[in-house]
Amino acid sequence: MPNLDVQTARFNMIEQQIRPWNVLDATLLQLLASVRRDAFVPAAYKALAYADLEIPLGDGQSMLAPRLEARLVQDLAIKKTDRVLEVGTGSGFLTALLAQLAASVVSLEIHAGRAAQARRNLQQAGIQNADVREGDGSQGAAGLGPFDVIVLGGSVAEVPRALLEQLSVGGRLGAVVGDDPVMCGTFITRNSASDFRTVQPWDCDAPRLLNFAEKSRFVF
């Protein structure tokens, strides 16, 4: 994709997809204008890097749509002092956004090949404060916590208690929670050791993360 085309596509992504989805944070918009999303997209889909869609990564996994990535990051209000846990690295693009806003990021990716590719993508983008680890993120990374922010890079039926317990007091978790056709952007703040506050400010849709439990379909 020629540089001029990238600039135009990125501008259109921000103005036509992201701003209309109430992503108005100036720092984040500037970041989205500078991080090359096409550098994180599989070669076969480079031309679609800035389109309003989920880009396949293989094995049924996908990059989130740009507007969803942006809204998740904005609504978590990440600070420069925050330690972040990301579950589901994917291509590493969301990781790159998080790393530019936070002190450090630990990112868990269940697929070895994707984890290796994400490391390469982040290295080529000059990101040095993100640690991509191969592993099942459904139980988090208890030995490395607590974390100020936890981000789930896909949807889940419900947020496991194990992840909530890895939030620091004052920490925030952002995820897409629910079942087709009803999913919500879900943000959980840990107010104390035992008090968690949940808000679900917007509706959305996202591919499932692997290895997270589904809710029981049985009615007793």
List the helices and strands and how they pair.
Elements: H1 3-18, H2 26-34, E1 55-58, E2 61-63, H3 66-75, E3 83-87, H4 93-101, E4 104-109, H5 112-124, E5 130-134, E6 147-156, H6 161-164, E7 167-179, E8 182-190, E9 196-204
Parallel strand pairs: 3-4, 3-6, 4-5, 6-7
Antiparallel strand pairs: 1-2, 7-8, 8-9
User: Overall 3D geometry?
Assistant: globular
CATH homologous superfamily name? Vaccinia Virus protein VP39
Amount of helix = 25-40%
The secondary structure category is alpha/beta
Give the neighbour order of strands across the main sheet.
5-4-3-6-7-8-9
Regions with pLDDT < 50 over 5+ consecutive residues? none
Kindly give the count of domains: 1
The CA-CA distance between the termini, in Å, is 55 Å
- Output mean pLDDT: 94
Q: What is the correct CATH architecture?
A: 3-Layer(aba) Sandwich
Order of helices and strands: HHEEHEHEHEEHEEE
- Strand tally is 9
CATH domain class:
Alpha Beta
Count of helical segments? 6
Strand content: 25-35%
Strand count, sense and closure of the main sheet?
7 strands, mixed
The CATH topology label is Rossmann fold
